[in-house]
Amino acid sequence: MKLFSRSKPKIKIQETKNEGFNGWLKCSHCKELIHIKELEQNVNCCPKCDYHYRISAVERIRLLADTDTFVEMYEDMKPSDPLNFVDTEPYKDRLEKAQKKTARNEGVIIGECLLNGQEVALGVMDFSFMGGSMGSVVGEKLTLLIEHALKECLPLIIVSASGGARMQESSLSLMQMAKTSAALTKLGKASIPFISILTNPTTGGITASFASLGDLIIAEPKALICFAGPRVIEQTIGEKLPPEAQKSEFLLEHGMLDCIVRRKDLKGKVSSFISYLHQEKLPKKKKTRSLEAVKKNKLVTLESTYKK
Ligand SMILES: [Zn+2]
Description:
Blueprint: E1 13-14, E2 24-26, E3 33-35, H1 36-41, H2 57-64, E4 71-73, H3 91-102, E5 108-115, E6 118-125, H4 136-152, E7 156-162, H5 170-189, E8 194-202, H6 204-207, E9 216-219, H7 230-237, H8 248-253, E10 259-260, H9 263-281, H10 292-305
Parallel strand pairs: 6-7, 7-8, 8-9, 9-10
Antiparallel strand pairs: 1-2, 2-3, 4-5, 5-6
Helix pairs in contact: 4-5
Bound molecules: zinc ion.
């Protein structure tokens, strides 16, 4: 049962009674005092030590997509509870809470956008929705995105942030690993590039499926990327792992990643990778479809329903 109720570390904003001192926080990494505004301006990276704090899925889309070009797909698809699963609380209640908290139906946002003028299919996992866990709907949405990329011949980008498969959906969650991987095989056979971006944390069934199948696998600095987390490994083998094992830098050194890119440079780098892969690999692309027709309505949905 403790698997379902682990404590979640968060950075805490220090509130002081004196006016004008609100909004300061202590960086959990370098322990320096930084202001929340400074952090926001720096795309949620510590201005002192460059530690990359988590950003929401919507902020991630803003970071990668050209302004006002993201068109969301399948946002109405909702998860169900086929097993009537109850752990410390019913799965239905957990879903409701997560939906209320994030104002979204599930833990992934998928759609199309322009990235430095290049049309791409983009999927972003939302860690704030039940730890970014992959249930059947998350798997289905990602598979639909992959199939969409295949059909429309669009380069695919998926940004992962996840605690793994969703335990409350049991083997139905596990099957999503095979499903997404099978869809990516088709994409690979059609020589359409897939860039997988791993952010802190990317673990469990996500690492063990689509996130590790990118033509290029990019990670953010110091991100935790693993299958089983350090705590589980320690409990299993009875030994402590080196402190930096399972971090991006260690994985890059051991050949699991292609590169580590700072958040500030992410869009530029991804864009140049795509233009390279696009020229090299993509079959002749059909004329770019217009995003104009639908984008306004969809953007309203994305911007207005997501609570910060
Ligand atoms: Zn810091």
